[in-house]
Amino acid sequence: MFEIDSRSRIPIYEQIKNQILLFIRMGVYKPDEQLPSIRAVSQQTGINVNTVKRAFADLEAEGVIYSLVGRGCFVSSSAIENTAIAQKALREIEHDIRSIKSKGVDKNDLIKLIESIYSEDD
Q: Are 97 and 42 in contact (CB under 8 A)?
């Protein structure tokens, strides 16, 4: 289920986080539904348990998931409405957009790229 690109510049724990967020948005994981265990994700992906644990810890800190001792991690009932993640993503990409602008990339080309990426989800 999880696909990790070891050649990507995106850290592995971020790839795991992004995929869990995508699965929540797509309805694969519903509010209050249990996620696969950290160990299960680690075994399925071949990724170190600590890396997977970091992804889950970040999601919990962001309010996307919650954990119950001895039972595992579950999707927060407010995960889909969590706007903090989107706001954080916009702040993170702002630097990249400013860099792209300073390198002479046309605004319309950037918009076309964004539209292309968003149409992949459709």
A: no
